[in-house]
Amino acid sequence: MVKSPLNSSIPSSRVVLTTVVSAIGTLALLPVRWPGMELAGIAPDWPLIWVVAWSVRRTPWQGLIAGLALGVLQDALVNPRLGWWPSHGLSLGIVGFLTALLQKDRLIQEDFISVALIVFAMAVIAETVMAVQWTVSGQRPLGQIWLDHQRLALASAILSSLWAPLVYVPLSRLWHSD
Amino acid sequence: MAVYLQTTQAWLVRELYRGLWGQRVPDTRLTDARVQELEIQVQELQTQNRQLQQLLDYKQKMPLATVAAMVVGRSAGHWWHQVWVGEGSSKGVTPGTVVVAPGGLVGRVLDVTPHTSRVLLVTDPSSKVGVMVNRSRAMGVLVGQGTGQAVVEFFDKNPDVKPGDSLVTSPFSTIFPPGIPVGKVESIDWRAMPAPRATVQLNAPIERLEWVLLHSYGQKSAELLHP
Question: Which residue ranges form the domains of chain A, and what is each CATH number?
């Protein structure tokens, strides 16, 4: 039986430190474009992969809070002003919440292939949440938002799911090794 | 015959010459008139030029310092088109600094740290640049599309524009200096509402930028930079 982090004692400082560093690391990867990592000018959504890896074996609320925190930090990298809207916090928060809601024991095995599949679906959901936020805020023409959404969601989902094991496997070892 | 010519001092020949060549006189008068007209036009243009240069002087007094900077990062969100460049406030870069690359306009600086600046590219959907068709002076606004291309929305119902026309920044822009090359018109949608729209192929290689030039172009109020 897998030991849930909820029941375990306080995690060691090594685990906490690696968790924080890896989360910030995914943000630091965002402005980078290495060859082969780009599809139609779009890079993998590293924070999304991290949030999925985090939420896979946690409660929905833990997923929500992690997604919110990481998303708000991502906002700081793109929004020119201190704007909360449209926010990656909302999209990643929803992603964390939904990932944790999935009944993985019953539905799918927890290996990196199913995690890649979850990342694929969650990338589409995350871009949809962003598109809905753009639509509600009315800053851009409606037709263009949903045209962009198709392109971004597909490219982001393909790339992120391909690169998901790179983030998921080490983190999974770290959190669930004992 | 010879005696006749001698005694009349070739009267007849001179009269004949007069008849043959005398017609040229009104011609030279016409040319003179044309020269005078042109001279007046030159004077007029010189006066206009002097006035325009006085206006221009006022603009050129603003510092147009140039800093070369390397692109260190691309935008951190899929819905935004930005780049991070490796020079900032320590080199005098301020929000609103105009960014160009070989080929033409790239964008403008949104905010700065001591050694980096965040640049809003002209391909970002929130970017709006006043542009002008070089050939016909037709004006429009260049709006980013989130892809490698951008679209010009013309002000005029029936602008004088055709595929292949080159676009430069408009002299009426308050954010960009006039006359920076922007791109070429690829196609025109004449049925677009409320006015025709042209798809533009941008000159600068926005997708593969490595180095950019930062031109300080006066201080801008925050309102202008974040409409």
Answer: 13-176 (1.10.1760.20)
